[in-house]
Amino acid sequence: MSADGTAAATVARRERLKLAAHIGPGTLWLLVFFVVPAFIVLRTSFYSFVDGQIVPQFTLENYLRVFREPLYAEVFVKSLAYGLIVVAIALPVGYPVAHFIARKARRNREILFLALIIPFWTSIVVRTYAWKILLGNSGLVNYLLQSAGITDEPIRFLFSLPAVLIGLVHVFLPYMILPIYASLEKQEAELEQAAQDLGANRFRTFVRITFPLSLPGVATGCMLVFIMTVSSYLTPDILGGPSQAMISNVIQSEYFETYNWPFGGALSVTFLVFSLVFFAIYSRLIKLDGGAAH
Amino acid sequence: MTASELDVELTHVSKSFGMVRAVDDVSFGVGRGEFFSLLGPSGCGKTTIMRMISGFEAPTSGSLKIRGQDVAAQPPFRRPTNMVFQHLALFPHMTVAQNIAFGLEMERLPKAEIGRRVGSALELVHLAGFDRRRVSQLSGGQRQRVAIARALVKRPAVLLLDEPLGALDLKLREEMQLELKRIQREIGTTFVYVTHDQKEAITMSDRIAVINGGRIEQLDTVSAIYERPRTAFVAGFIGETNLLRGRLVEAGGETATVAVGEARLAVRPEAPLPRDTEVLVSLRPEKIRLGPPLPETANRLDGTVESIVYLGSHTRYRVQVPGVGGLDVDVQNAEPAAPHEAGRPVTLGWQPAAAVVIPQPSGRAE
């Protein structure tokens, strides 16, 4: 009996060790590089900022200021709006690409996939600067427009909303395509055939079967693109300039231009909370949608 | 059977994939209300034949008619056929009722009629009350029934079934075989069933087309396929058999004599064969009598019991006959104890009509 008990205890201990070995490294990583910094930001956001100095004295002033000055609400709303617009462009652009690779491309699938992956190996900075060259006053786009006689004067694309949106869609499009591709790819081929066998033409097969079953991929893609757009920093900085500043640019300037870490922290925390609430609602809606589909 | 009574009619149909000829000059007709099986090993072309009937593949040559109409130009969604897929292909994002209603919605039928027909389809497959269940909440057997109901609710001219029972365990599979047969009798729809399982085909079919290498080896009623196989492949693929290679040494009259090794066997060929024809003699294990021969038994061979396998309802003996080879013999276990022992000499006996003579085209490899 006692021998059995010891054996059981040994097994239990071994199981616990296995669990620790599995989740330990990841937990440690998150703790050191995410939880601790986030906690520091949270703590700093309640400090005072007096005469250009951070004073460890509790205050709510930073948060009050976030809500008091309309500039910040505007930037918040603008960032969220950019997120929605980029998603609204990336979804209809990305879905057909994903569908083409998953269904139509046979021999070229690997090449197309590579074309989709290669940008990940290139720094966002480089890719965004490429757009700066393409869209500049003496860039390729203006050159082509002028050569074709469509315009005499170069059009000023840079430092405008369209330039930022083009850059954002370009950078984040693969994050829309890949999850949709994955969900289309794993659909059983027999399902579409069954729909056709039951009298559905290609269009109705897509509307009733293919698309609804790809919704998890669509939801993931939209969420990824939205998160990354809203928190993007480089693209609006390089292609948009100060007039197109998004929330990350504002936070960055608080940290590294005015060195007001407490206020920068308050902006960060407020934005994080907004984001969490937004995703709670989003995932709730998606789940409801999944349950109530048809 | 006149042509107008045929629900499916293939005439010289072939299908090539690149250099591979998957279906090679196949012709057959399936009568109204018939349970017709395409039986053969995997890769024999049976599934390709079915996919051509359903419209997912187009024949390379030949004509294909459904209810007398050439369907070559019709895409799958316009054909009066419906299919029960190998993996069933139930729509996972829909309930049972929504799955079954899908095909009727595609016909744009009024809601009330859809509801009525879904209800009676569920009753037909004994799933009344399951309409709101999700597909994921069903057992394997219940899923089969939903797939059958979803196809039959469309009232197709032909129901195509592509090995739908493969994923079930033996017990459930046998149950579903009887269920399919019951459903087919009840509604009288023509069933075309694809399978590699000869027992399944025998249990359910009216007629079977045995397919091998893209061609029909034999098309016959179930009992004719079993009792009178026309090729060595059919004899070996359906049920179990002893194949003895020999040569016709005496022809004429009803019976002929075949020399197998040193033995002389009396046989009864279906059609008269010339002397010296190379033949295979197919002899089913259960047609051989083991033990003291009855006086009228024409064929007798003496041998030694090599091995004994007890199989419940019967016992299988392997008997070595000098100059002929090993023969399998089945003996019904009417009494509990097996009456023979390994190593003992025994006598095998059978009547000329018990064996089937399969002429071998000269030069054809086994």
UniProtKB/TrEMBL annotation, chain A:
Keyword GTP-binding applies: no
Cellular compartments annotated: Cell membrane
Topology term for the membrane: Multi-pass membrane protein
Name of the protein in its database record: Spermidine/putrescine transport system permease protein
Keywords per UniProt: Cell membrane, Membrane, Transmembrane, Transmembrane helix, Transport
Lineage: Bacteria, Pseudomonadati, Pseudomonadota, Alphaproteobacteria, Rhodospirillales
Membrane spanning residue stretches: 23-42, 80-102, 111-135, 155-178, 211-234, 263-282
CDD domains: TM_PBP2
Pfam family, one: BPD_transp_1
Species of origin: Tistlia consotensis USBA 355
ABC transmembrane type-1 domain: residues covered: 76-282
Stored InterPro entries: MetI-like, MetI-like_sf
UniProtKB/TrEMBL annotation, chain B:
Record bears the keyword Cell membrane: yes
Domain ABC transporter: 8-238
Chain segments annotated as transmembrane: none
A single cellular component GO annotation: ATP-binding cassette (ABC) transporter complex
UniProtKB keywords: ATP-binding, Cell membrane, Membrane, Nucleotide-binding, Translocase, Transport
Lineage: superkingdom: Bacteria
Assigned EC number: 7.6.2.11
Pfam families the record matches: ABC_tran (PF00005), TOBE_2 (PF08402)
Segment forming the signal sequence: none
GO MF annotation list: ABC-type polyamine transporter activity; ATP binding; ATP hydrolysis activity
Function description: Part of the ABC transporter complex PotABCD involved in spermidine/putrescine import. Responsible for energy coupling to the transport system.
Family: Belongs to the ABC transporter superfamily. Spermidine/putrescine importer (TC 3.A.1.11.1) family.
Subunit comment: The complex is composed of two ATP-binding proteins (PotA), two transmembrane proteins (PotB and PotC) and a solute-binding protein (PotD).
Protein name in the entry: Spermidine/putrescine import ATP-binding protein PotA
Organism (species): Tistlia consotensis USBA 355
Recorded name of the encoding gene: potA
